[in-house]
UniProtKB/TrEMBL annotation:
<feature type="region of interest" description="Disordered">
    <location>
        <begin position="92"/>
        <end position="111"/>
    </location>
</feature>
<protein>
    <recommendedName>
        <fullName>ScoMcrA-like N-terminal head domain-containing protein</fullName>
    </recommendedName>
</protein>
<dbReference type="Pfam" id="PF26345">
    <property type="entry name" value="ScoMcrA_N"/>
</dbReference>
<feature type="domain" description="ScoMcrA-like N-terminal head">
    <location>
        <begin position="8"/>
        <end position="94"/>
    </location>
</feature>
<dbReference type="InterPro" id="IPR058807">
    <property type="entry name" value="ScoMcrA_N"/>
</dbReference>
């Protein structure tokens, strides 16, 4: 089963983000797998938290969800799939782009 079909949930991602917040980006990336390189494209934010690198974050969430499965390594990811996966999850946005909290609406939407 590919990681895209593994059923990684927001809860798994939140646990991985908490680990990254405690250890820092570089140590987190290294702990996920020593061959992960720093993200070349934009990183992701989660409701003002972050930034997070998509591939290590997804790999860590997969490890939380499936502790007995082989760890995901850089070659398990193709192109922008990890970033796109995260951006489809509620609350995620690209670094540098505004992300509104749940239930928030722009004043122009109130008219």
């Amino acid at each position: 089963m590919s990681w895209q079909q593994a059923g990684i949930t927001l809860h798994h991602l939140q646990l991985a983000m908490s680990h990254c917040d405690r250890t820092g980006l570089d140590a987190f990336r290294e702990a996920c797998h020593p061959n992960f390189k720093a993200a070349k494209g934009k990183r992701v934010m989660y409701q003002g938290r972050g930034p997070y690198e998509p591939r290590p974050l997804t790999a860590a969430a997969h490890a939380v969800a499936y502790p007995d499965a082989p760890v995901l390594v850089p070659k398990d990811f193709k192109g922008d799939t990890a970033r796109q996966f995260l951006l489809r999850q509620p609350g995620f946005s690209l670094e540098g782009e505004e992300s509104e909290p749940p239930g928030w609406c722009r004043p122009s939407q109130l008219v």
